[in-house]
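ingest -> validate -> predict -> emit
validate: passed (alphabet ok, no gaps, 376 aa)
predict: started
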Amino acid sequence: MNAIKGWVQNSTEAVNIRLVKAGPGSAEDDEEQDIVEFNPSFTYPIFGENEQIFGYKGLFINLEFASGSLASCFTLGFKDKKPTADKIYPLMKDWLPPDIIDNHDKFTEIAQRDGATFKPMGTKVGEYAIDHEGAENSVFEFYQANFNTPRFQEYHKRMQCFSIFFIEGASFIEDDDDKWEIRLVFEKVIDNGNQTYNLVGYCTIYPYFCYPDQIRMRISQFLILPPYQQQGHGNKLYASLYNEFCSRKEIREMTVEDPNEEFSDLRDKNDMRLLISKKVFENIQAPVKNSRIEEIAKAYKLTKRQVARCVELALLKTLDKRNKAQYKAFRLQVKQRLYKHNAEALATLDKEERIEKLHETFMSVEEDYHRILALL
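emit:
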């Protein structure tokens, strides 16, 4: 068993993603390139649930991307290999850009060239700056595109693998459906009068019909690339989408498809800050009527469930647990929503189990609300 184990490697650790930012030097000078390297978060769609590669020792798989154009290169190396080893490129091929090459020297030339010539596609819809080390010469720009935008369909084929590597449960979206809207974030670096662009992140959004004559915008994939995380870019991207949706009369509300915990936190923080700034929660007390929640949801184009959560967060923020009546009213407010949301599952339990399960869920929600409030 130990002998076999030595030939098994974790695929997530073996894959190295490298973003290559071209410098002002020659194409042959690797030292003139700023290279950021990191591992993917997920590789199970490619290598299976256990994320394992069999038959190699000392395996590394390099996926290099020009940081703006996303021109790419696949190379691998190993110390030893069994005749029965997994065939890595055939396993990965369908998940990688269709124009990926396997010549590192040629890729270096392309990355250098693209660094000087690449420009974002789509319509520029905004920009911002951040106070962060290394971003002194940078402006961050939003671009709006769809699959009819010149150059974007080809660019998306290069970009879409990042969703597989960093968004759990993600799949490729249909690039022949021009209803998709994509918001891209690029870093524009200005150095000695020269401009270069690096991809920071992106979001895919799909419009759904909302009776009788509006649409519901659903966020599908939302990603900030690892080198740019924890710098405020996710907040900026979310706010840019929200502000645009609010300005479009045909949009009824903004929804999210299967949000993970990190995105849920970002969403909660931004929605809470918005509603607090609008003084929505002034003098709020439980119980808050459903009609008031519907009123807030309509006014701010948020879902009723999201507004209900924000209301509960606002109640907890000012709650004095020593006031038993106040705490009971808060508890009932939360439990009422939880019961409606989980009614089908709770209906299978007897009364005592149902009461116990509902209380356990409430305690878990309250604990998580305290964690979220600490982020505000």
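The first helix runs from residue 2 to 5.
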